[in-house]
Amino acid sequence: RSKAEGPGRSTLFDVSMHNRVRERIELEAALRTALARGELRVAYQPIVNLETGQPLGAEALVRWEHPERGNISPATFIPIAEDAGLIGSIGTWVRNQAMSQLARWRADGTVADDFYLSVNVSPRQLTDANLPLIVSAELLRYGVPAGALALEMTESVMVDGSSVTSQVLFELRELGLRLLVDDFGTGFSALGYLRRFPVTGVKIDRSFVSGLGESVEDEEIVRAVVAMSRALGLSIVAEGVETPTQRDALAAVGVRQGQGWLWGRAMAPDEFVASVRAVASAINRDQLAAGNS
Ligand code: C2E
Ligand code: MG
Ligand code: MG
Ligand code: MG
Questions:
Q1: CA-based nearest residue to 186, from 212, 160, 207
Q2: Residue nearest to atom 4 of ligand 1 (CA)
Q3: Which of 69, 131, 152, 167 is the most buried (most CB within 10 A)?
Q4: Pocket test for ligand 1, best of 40, 50, 61 (most atoms within 8 A of CB)
Q5: Which residues, if any, are the signal sequence (predicted)?
């Protein structure tokens, strides 16, 4: 260590480092029992028709209510779950929660037949050669059509994935699942994988959406993503839409599906149902008003 830092500084550094390691070990231990203790939940964020606000689908996002620390972000605990070998069981649990929820919403008419639920998968989950068989059994068990289930993965899955991962993706696609590239545009890879893998759509990362209406560069990037996705026959969802300005800029370049706080955050199931009903009656009201004018 340099003299300028001094002994005091390096001690501070060691202490904070020590605290971080201890915190990490504690979180990992708590996460091991979180599922069994019922501390995990699945929240649902609407994916909507950008022009009407009508829900076309939803993303299932896992939540952890730690007994002492309260809510811990998946951005914090998913990487821990991946390192600790817990992502398989957590991922399976989230997927099953989502599918059984979807089956109920389809049965009680909360959602239309073509409504889809989108579930995040970690790279590690896609190295399990049995995954397609397991998912196909789950589809049968819940009575959910494959096309109503989407899996979201980051592009690293396809760029760094093994031949097993590739096989798993082709089999999942063969079943009829939608396969979406999450956080699209944040990787720095060549785009060839979009043709080599059976991807059905992309989710444009929030970092490109946030600058819309202010940054000409971001607008050009989104425009290019739309053109390319169209040429490849891919669906497009814009993530992290927070303002009407962003929505309008997206609509102007031909993006049809949006997700973001402008329409709703990730919600508990009953809240989600209430929001679907509220949107439906608002759309009805607008149509009536338009009809009467
Ligand atoms: P993601 O898949 O890209 O999910 C979108 C994240 O952006 C979510 O954060 C969502 O709450 C947030 N978001 C949505 N709309 C807006 C908006 O308008 N503005 C802003 N600022 N943020 C918005 P969340 O729920 O904290 O999830 C973080 C990440 O954790 C997810 O990113 C996903 O990579 C991962 N994750 C969540 N649930 C699961 C899961 O069940 N399995 C796996 N493997 N990963 C998960
Ligand atoms: Mg996602
Ligand atoms: Mg995303
Ligand atoms: Mg993202």
A1: 207
A2: 61
A3: 131
A4: 61
A5: none
